[in-house]
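Please go through the protein record below and see whether the fold suits the sequence. Record follows.
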Amino acid sequence: MPIKVNFKNSALKKTSANLVLFVDEKFSTNSLRKYISNSELSYISDLLKTTDLSKNLLVFELSSKKKVVLVSIKKNIKNSEIENLGAELFGRINYGKNSEYFINSDSIAINQKNFIGYFLHGLKLKSYEFKKYKSKKDSRIININVIGNKNKLPPNELLKFKALEEGTFYTRDLVSEPGNVLHPDEYAKRLNSLKKFGLKVNIYNEKKLKKLGMNALLGVGQGSIRGSYLVTIEWNGARNNSKPLAFIGKGVCFDTGGYSLKPAKFMEDMTYDMAGSAVVVGLMKNLALRKAKINAVGVVGLVENMVSGNAQRPGDIVKSYSGKTIEILNTDAEGRLVLADALTFTEKKFKPKFMVDLATLTGAIIVSLGSEYAGLFSNNDKLSKELINAGEKVQEKLWRMPLHKNYDKLINSKNADMQNINYVGGAGSTTAAQFLQRFILNNTPWAHLDIAGMAFSKYGGALNSGGATGYGVRLLNQLIKDHYE
């Protein structure tokens, strides 16, 4: 549901409607008499005596036209916890006809920098819905009026929150689109429109990719009537010619599994197999909107893995952009083929400071980590620690998984340099990452994020209401903010 936020300088009259007030962990009401009438204060105080105070947020219905929401703030609260409070508020007000709330910033008893910014950020992230194809539209808008002397946000901080929200929402929008709408041809067109934000966009079509020798990527898409593409998105925000930070995404717009066909049950979820690329796109849009003082490049491989008379067969051998040959034993292990060419191309062309790739790569990572952590595989301890710490700050957690040369024997092929799947069994996510590592040719610091369990949530999370999560945009933005900007 759309949220409209207004910052108002005027003081709130005690007779005004729905009010959001901040209190301490014990829900002390002593400071509230400035904001509500004595009778309302007495009523709330009586109810608090028999209320479970372990909750973060309590709602008191004072009349059919007025609610008072008390939000508990603990000492030493983290920014991520403030965001959670904002998200929880949205969950409590997103119903009924009440559509206007006043948040009194003067009731905040702590001096946390940008408290209101983080609170509203969480509220907005939680409010996202994808209802583009619903014929019956919900016209309700929730108006949030922020009043009091602590409601001021510096313009640059306001811009950062807004850019991050827009980048995250763009990612969620892309992931939510059905496969018949967001096929590779349409996706490439949408990426070309990002030029209006100051991004440099180059689209490599099939003709260009064949000339470059990207046969691993092209092999995945050859069964589709749609085109296959590699798209580069550059942001040059640094005043020097420093090496860019590189982010690479798997963009399989729909994945049938090819001739290694997936089961029919839940195949409709394979519209989400382009989530890695969507994270890269949302991140780049965010960096452009907030005028980040870095150089960065996003590279996405866009394909559709379909079944046809021209589709790739199990047993085919392809020569990758790197020159290494790959035996295709399973056409459903396709994402690593797309990333293989994209990784080598990015390293050769842009000579980046580091590379981070994101992909809904393996079901095995969901078996390992569920929907709590994404898998992190890396050749660099420093980059791994930075990513893990950034993830903890924004509640987009990572768990480092092993890479080791002993796993290589599981993907060595008798007929080519390597095979695209481990048929011995076990270590599915690790052998996939081990495969990708073979396409890092110059020891560039690299991290692979397997986000298969994190890109989409059927039941919702702290900062999303179910569906596409946008996982990764805020994580990588935090990484850049903390260490590279």
Notes: The chain has two domains: 3-153, 160-483. Residues 214 and 321 are 5 Å apart (CA to CA). The domain at 160-483 is CATH 3.40.630.10 (Aminopeptidase).
